[in-house]
Amino acid sequence: MIAFKNSFRELLRYPSAIVGLLVIFILLGVAVYALVTIPYSEAIRLWRGGEDVWYQNPKYASPEWFNFFTSKKEPLSFLANTADGSMTKTVTSSTADISTVEMTYSFDYTYDDYPQEIILYFSPKFNEKLPFVSIAWYTPDGRKIRIADIAVDRKSSYRFSQDQKLQKSLRNEDVMQALFVDPHAENPTVVKGQYKLVISGTTFEKDSDLDVQFVFHGKVYGLAGTDKYRRDILLPLLYGTPIALAFGLLAALGTSVLTMIIAAIGTWYAGWVDELIQRITEINLVLPFLAILIMVGTFYSRSIWLMLGVTILLSIFSGQIKTYRAIFLQSKEASYIEAARAYGASDRRIIFSYLIPRMIPLLIPALVSSIPSFVFLEASLAVLGLGDPVLPTWGKVIDDAITDGAIYRGLYYWPLEPAALLMLTGLGFAMLGFALDRVFNPRLRDI
Amino acid sequence: MSQNNKLLRIEGLVLYFNTTHGPVQAVDGVNFELESNRAVVVLGESGCGKSSLAKAILRLLPRNAGTYSGHIYLEGQDIMALGEEEFRQNVRWAAISMVPQAAMNALNPVIRVGEQVAEPAIVHLGVGKDEAYSLVKKMFQHVGVPEDFISRYPFELSGGMRQRVAIAMALVTSPNLIILDEPTSALDVLTQANIFNVLKRLKKELGVSFILITHDIATSSELADDVAVMYAGQIVEVSDAHRFFAKPLHPYSQKLMASVPRLHGDKEPEFITGRPPSLIDLPKGCRFADRCPARFEKCVEDPPVIEKDGRKVKCWLYA
Amino acid sequence: MVTDTRSKVVKGEAEGARKVLLSIDDLHVWFELRRFGFGHAGYVKAVDGVTFDVHSGETIAVVGESGCGKSSLMKTILGLYKPTRGKVIFDGKNLSELDSAGMHWYHTRVGYVQQDPYGALPPFMTIERILEEPLIVGGVKKKEEREQRVRRAMEEVKLSPVADFLPKFPHMLSGGQQQRVVIARAMIMEPKFLVADEPVSMLDASVRVEILKLLRGLQESHHLSVIYITHDLSTVSYFSERIFVMYAGNLVEKAKVRQVLDNPLHPYTMALLTGTSEPDAKNAETFKEIPPGEPPSLVNPPSGCRFHPRCSKMIKGLCEIEEPPDFEPEPGHLVACWLYK
Q1: I need a labelling partner for B160 at 20 to 30 A (CA). Which of A21, A261, A305, C60 fits?
Q2: What is the rounded distance in angstroms from the CA atom of residue A51 to the CA atom of residue A55?
Q3: Neighboring chain C residues of B215 at a CB cutoff of 8 Å
Q4: Which regions of chain A are under pLDDT 50?
Q5: Is C172 on the interface with A (CB under 8 A)?
């Protein structure tokens, strides 16, 4: 314990260790936060969900904080609802059966660009007779634009930009531009000020009612933006953290610990055991690691945990075994081992209590430094199309972005956000690893 | 015994090492003299700074060396004032060479011993390869290594033979002074005796001087003309060997002498209680006072070096 | 003085009345040499026909140079090597015939003090753990009992205050303290028998005596049998009743300490005594008469007496042909040398 405390104090003398630890703690914090706030099943449901889950979000929206850095402010996304009162709704009954429902929503629009889409989701209550609505749009410069007059069925929605009648009446294929830009101005610019949406509905039954949800798809969304499927990228970024850390840690831990134990066993028993381990290692060294992973992924399963197992299995008999063996051969001759044999310690006790503990100082830095390579491996597999089909991971985001040509479309945020997290993880562990190496291998300290 | 006779005179030599816990005062104001063709033994226990003293004389300073000051006069010239390049060319190995601790295990295992011994001759004397090898043969004769061992590798030689090779390596540039750091401590009795026979012969035949650094009083008497006892970074007694081995003056020397087990006679050896002080946190006054049986009030002050019939002792008892 | 202390240990017991604890009978320990990993290429005859008894409570010194086979002899006694031929009998039991439970018992009866105290202690364990290990291995299940025995052992080797030392790591201790831990570890199973391999050769002169005295005190209070292995004759007289001198796999002289030190019979023993220095300024003025050459290879030792190529008193036509048997020129003083036929 004292030794551990001292090593820790020693460690904090290196600025790289402090930075590395800070990064790792932040990542761990994010991982814990993600696991606590988003249960596993919920994360999967959201990640695999389509339009029904993500209809509120714009497609390909950049993160909101982009607006801080650009002069052209992009519109945010928002929604309003008559059901929760965020949109005003007044009902007046004219006859026993017929009533009018007036739903209005005004908002200040201060952005320099028009939005992606405006959608109305209607949820009417009726038995046979469909309610009827007319939708009108008031701009700050006093124009009134009639949008549509439609009968609303259960679960019907109205998308502004997809209404060809509206396109015709506005004489513009881009409905959003027509709604937000002053057509008479010399330089067509977005008109800022208060816009108003008025939906006048009529119901034809006694208990009939009408609610509407107004979904406004801006061009920026949330902290991380959205992808092709309107999914909030924050979800895979958050939830990818525990997965990446778990994969990296488990792979690194499994590999280094098993490698060390096998090296210790081979060295201690020598003879044919050692020979066997040596030959297996040599064969394994020439096996194509990535190719085997790709084959497993293609023909068997792409589950991340299976990949983890195969990765560990293939990495155990690595060149590291030879390094450890060389050191074990030396420490095997230590006279404290001879003493242990003289007081009757069993082979197992000697391997686990005398040979291996001596190596822990070498193991720890190697382990920490190898974590990023496994995190990268997981991402690389995803980019190669062998990512886990179910889990939201960083690699999967990069894969989606590349498949969708995000770079060519200028959607840099999409692949770069997970890439930045990958690099941050790599940096954190590498910096801590360097410092640990210095603490545990005093020979390096002067360098 | 005029000043000119002095081969080496060390005055106020200081060598500290910087550590995270503070400076280690390994060599702390050492003075002693060595006359030509004599051997001085620097006697002390592990951690007293005796190996650092050897490094300080040869300016073989590790990376963490801190304060390094004082004067080292070699045949009247202060070699501390020399620049590094001059020092390397004219002093290190040319005038003073060294057989480092465990030298026999420090030979390069993949180079033939002849080549390793020839190396310093080629570098420092600027001789050609053939001449260097004839020098090596001569040196092998002096130290008692068969000539045909020139083309052998270190692992083919016994410990004793390797130690002789290491001595030949120190000897090949014909320096006036060789520093021997624990030359026999890892060797067997008969090999030890053999090595001392070789050293005695070198002193007699070639007139070489030696500084022998050791913790082993019994074997040190095999070569000693003078004895300097080192304790906690300082020399506490300097004496000629005859009087020293008959009756050491400093209480520490006396205690050391009493700890030597004898083959014959019925005196039980004694041990010194306590431990030497840490070189980082040295006590004020006499550094041996804590363990000294003859301690008295005066000992809280740093004792002066007192000269008594040509012997020097740093102890209040003789003031 | 010294002989007085020694006789106190025996306390009037007649030499023959003491029980034989360890008996080595015609012991051979050979190691096969292989060429390229297979194919027989001869044997290293590290121990080649050694016979002796150790009585209970007796201290024996085995003296010899490195490579004479004393380490192999010691390791065979500790049960780390198997004898090629011959027997090691401890308390009436032949080690080769013991099953694993029997060996387990044997390991608790024999303590082992090593040469290099720093190397002998695992650097990653605390002193407490180091001392607990043999107890755990030896099957002492109760934690309190182990703690108690650790404390007792530490007090016995005068590592006090005990509580200060328990959580320390070996590198925080001085050489002498480390060696005390090694001794405490050897003593913790309360063995009957101690093998001490050059226990003081790596220590400073002033500490050596302290450790030797400690070992002697333990030997007396526990009535231990001790095999003290060393190359240094000067420390032997304080610690042993009998000396066995070993050369090239054989014991060449076996006798009481005083007999060997004051009246050595074998030419090799004489050389060893000549080679051992005592602090005396006159040493520097003379050259020592040392037999030429070096100890022979144990793969191909010389025929006849193995010391004959270096021996100044060699009898031509005898020494180089026939191996000398043990002669007894004075009572209790055995020497394997044709000079005494």
Answers
A1: C60
A2: 5
A3: 204-205
A4: 446-447
A5: no
